Amino acid sequence: MIKTVIIEDEKPASRKLERMLSNFPEIEVVGKIESVEEGVAWFSENEHPQLIFSDIVLGDGLSFDIFEKVPTKGFIIYTTAFDQYTLKAFKLNSIDYLLKPILEEDLSGAVEKFKSFIPSNNTAGSEDIKQLIRKEKSTLSRVLVKIGYNLKIVQTQEISCFFSENKIVYLQTDERVYPSDFTLDELEDILEEKKFFRVNRQFIINSDYIKNIHTSPYYKVEMEFQPQEEITVSRDRVKDFKEWLVG
């Protein structure tokens, strides 16, 4: 049997996932956790399961906090409504990342991936995880931003550019500018390469919003929506930039 734990703070979602997992006779749910505090206690006191299904945003924090405090050798399949945590998820033993609402075929695919990859001793080594990370490159399709006490989902297709200012990375839409939790280096890894390109140390632009490109005396890009600062292409990036434009 594959011992499994579900981490989910919404009871209906937890019950639904448990019902879906009941279709896999080889899986045994041995625990259900609803908070970071409960998760830290559970993983500190119990034998760690081979497989963990975990939501990310819990009532008292992020589920990442559990595994940063109590490291696990089990595989984690994250189940969440937000895909902006993909990069960090794969750094914490994740083998898959299922966006809610979870589809039967996606769940089945994730379980089969686990079964085909699991080593003979039923634990995941650090090198195994690194290999998975290299194979699995997810692209960011939505960004969660905070506005006062509210949260807003912004589709990446609505973002003209990302830019850094005073050590904070912002995203620009036609409506306004929003701060994000990413670094530009992280965004380079998870944005769709055909759409987004890092023109310099400060800007990543979306090709759908390029308004004009000046080539003399240097490459300068005008976007439909951008901050007041000029967007120039670094000299060492010009060749890659031109290839990206036609690619």
TrEMBL record:
Listed InterPro entries: CheY-like_superfamily (IPR011006), LytR-like (IPR046947), LytTR_DNA-bd_dom (IPR007492), Sig_transdc_resp-reg_receiver (IPR001789)
Protein name: DNA-binding response regulator
Domain of life: Bacteria
Listed transmembrane segments: none
All copies of domain HTH LytTR-type, residue ranges: 143-247
Gene3D superfamilies: 3.40.50.2300, LytTr DNA-binding domain (2.40.50.1020)
Pfam short name (any one): LytTR
Domain Response regulatory intervals: 3-115
Modified residues (4-aspartylphosphate): 55
GO function terms (MF aspect): DNA binding; phosphorelay response regulator activity
SMART domains on file: LytTR (SM00850), REC (SM00448)
Keyword Transit peptide: no
Coiled coil: none
Keywords: DNA-binding, Phosphoprotein
